[in-house]
Amino acid sequence: MFNGSLRLRNVILLALGVSFLVFAVDRYTEAKTRMRSHQWTLHQERIGLVPAEHFSIELRPDANADYLVAAKFVSPSAGKPSDQFLCDIGWSFGDDAVCVNNEIELSVDWLVRDASGLVVARADATPRAGTLGSQHGTVYLGKFPAKAGALYRLEATTKKSSARLRSYQPTLEVRIDPMRFKNAVASSQMNAAIAIVASVVGGGLIVLVGVLSWRQRR
């Protein structure tokens, strides 16, 4: 009777351990699936950003979401973008010692049409928002709403840019709204953390069953 109770306990612990491991695999798979659910950067292309330059790009999003149109600049040196670069994109206004003329040196007109030719978004983009990294700066030109699988065409014309900006290897990027991407990353990290904890608990229970079974046989 006593041995039967011990065997039942071991079976229950083993079942719990296996369940935790199955749950861990499920959370890990969800974490990977979440990050691979969309093409987060829909398009990326080097551009000259020469005034009057026109370009047209065909896009087919895979998510019902707002897509960000941005220009990314990479510092030609090993360091962070210069103060003069920040002046050119309008991020250092008020610092007269650096920004002498207080004029933004970047303007890009753009619009997005759907498959029927209807304009779904447009902007005379004089940038104000963006992100600054250790060796690059990304300027947000605007957003447009998209439906998964639909065909769109982005048409843009550079109205104004400085030689300094053009030396920063400008790249046009079209990607899912950053907040949606951040939420996906946070969700994936949470699922990955849960998977780690569940796998440790499940593995520990299985090891415990092994130890208890070994003691019973002694």
Q: Describe the main β-sheet briefly.
A: 5 strands, antiparallel
Q: Rg, please?
A: 27 Å
Number of helices: 4
Count of individual beta strands: 9
**Unreliable segments of 5+ consecutive residues:** none
In helices, the fraction of residues equals 25-40%
Please, what is the average pLDDT? 76
Listing every helix as H and every strand as E from the N terminus to the C terminus, the arrangement reads HEEEHEEEEEHEH
What does this structure look like?
This protein is of the alpha+beta class and 218 residues long. The chain has helices at residues 2-35, 83-88, 163-166, 178-217, and strands at residues 41-46, 54-59, 65-74, 106-114, 119-125, 130-132, 136-146, 152-161, 171-176. α1 (2-35) runs antiparallel to α4 (178-217). The mean pLDDT is 76.
